[in-house]
């Protein structure tokens, strides 16, 4: 059958729409966040970046292309890169603009990171691997190292009237001030773009549409979302035409929720605050994590589904700077992968990086040579595999809100149900212990066999759905219904595939090697 030219064009436009990744497609993804300057460098020089100097360290988009195996090998299928546009070149009291958040020219690329061709090639290399590209964008401000700024040096906003008059944001409870005053200080000011000016708004909308098309971007992360009036954003997001997720730095669910209504999603900062405090020490409370998540599920537009779920980013101290207890670290790292949001991992966490606040948390990755033998690389790889298996097994997985199953020790034990996941987390640490109990007056999320994806041990509930599990070394357990494993032989293959299993088990400490592979699923069965 011959297609008319018009029909052909409409098919083409359907194909293009399909490429513009929707929120629903992003929900199934897993994002790796990189600071381009610190992730990969051309050539063989592995000298670590001296983060304290706050200077460019040489990372490029071209070098990133050569390291996509490393990212994809851990199971990530999207990469969030730091801002791409040209920044001010000054050597300021706060260093250089290697992070990319001090815009100078919206229409030029930052030459430190490469050329237009390099960025297009990165985009293509990602798409060839069926991975998504997310670009970080800043519209709230440009950067200035002089006070007053030289307005004529910016493009396209080169006149003073295109910026708000200078005043500093001091009172964060005054939303007008948050929106119209400036961030930064007189050493480096973040000159506040006048997003009330119609000409400026038109320009920004056309700029983002062009940028997304030119580099075939699949999603954008929006910096300082709460510093621009809410009704600016819907049209901007529409002009972008791809998934938008914004930064609202706040621990307040109600406040953050207002921003979840103007673009596709927010980064889940309210949960991050509780996640960090729940797991950074053995005296924290996992109950407050459950509390904030439940509140956000009922308050954010679309609930927690689609929020960006993270444990680290470039603005906050790395989690391993707060505790060295590997059990606590592994529990906290598991959270973004088992909840309703889209998991985001900040580069370097998988290598156990411990940098505290900015600039220490912006280490280079080349000096560890993209080592895949680090235990946290395995940890995150398993988490990604488990999430993918859960998505493949249950069509409704991404849309099913997590439920918390009340625990005897609510401050130390967290049981989270999101079928086919049953996740058991604890903050008792490597020297402590606790018991999780499922069932009783609480609906059993699953009846039957479950497999912990980290140890490959099997558990079986009683016929009425009771299960009692003792913690071991304070480690998290991410259990999948046994049926969910079948579709993905990459998790716990020994559970299903005979003899190799015995060999794998014999290598594990704890004398488990004496058990036959077929007994694995029945190990530690608890009947309550
Ligand atoms: C809030 O900030 C704006 C802008 O700085 C200012 O004009 C206004 O007086 C402030 N409102 C209050 C209640 O302080
Ligand atoms: C949280 O934000 C809401 C809405 O902006 C505000 O009314 C409330 O006072 C805030 N709560 C706290 C504890 O700051
Ligand atoms: C937990 O312990 C630390 C140090 O041991 C202490 O500084 C902190 O206040 C404690 N937190 C709580 C909630 O008790």
UniProtKB/TrEMBL annotation:
- Look up the record and name the cofactor or cofactors this protein needs: Ca(2+)
**What are the disulfide bonds?**
49-57, 167-181, 456-492
- One Pfam family of this protein, by short name? A_amylase_dom_C
Q: Which InterPro entries match?
A: A-amylase-like (IPR013777), A_amylase_C_dom (IPR015340), GH (IPR017853), GH13_cat_dom (IPR006047), Glyco_hydro_b (IPR013780)
Quote the catalytic activity from the record.
Answer: Endohydrolysis of (1->4)-alpha-D-glucosidic linkages in polysaccharides containing three or more (1->4)-alpha-linked D-glucose units
Q: Which residues bind Ca(2+) 1?
A: 140, 179, 192, 227
According to the UniProt entry, where is the signal peptide?
1-20
Enzyme class at the top of the EC tree: hydrolase
Gene Ontology biological process = carbohydrate catabolic process
Residues annotated as binding substrate are 102, 141, 221, 315, 362
Answer whether the UniProt record assigns the keyword Hydrolase to this protein: yes
Active site location: 223, 247
Say yes or no: keyword Hydrolase present: yes
Question: For this protein, what is any one GO molecular function term?
Answer: alpha-amylase activity
Q: Which residues form the Glycosyl hydrolase family 13 catalytic domain?
A: 33-387
The enzyme's E.C. designation: 3.2.1.1
In this UniProt entry, which residues are annotated as the site Transition state stabilizer?
315
Give binding positions for Ca(2+) 2: 223, 247
Alphabetized UniProt keyword annotations: Calcium, Carbohydrate metabolism, Disulfide bond, Glycoprotein, Glycosidase, Hydrolase, Metal-binding, Signal
Q: Which PANTHER family match?
A: ALPHA-AMYLASE 1, ALPHA-AMYLASE FAMILY MEMBER
Family membership: Belongs to the glycosyl hydrolase 13 family.
The protein's name in its UniProt record: alpha-amylase
Organism of derivation: Pterulicium gracile
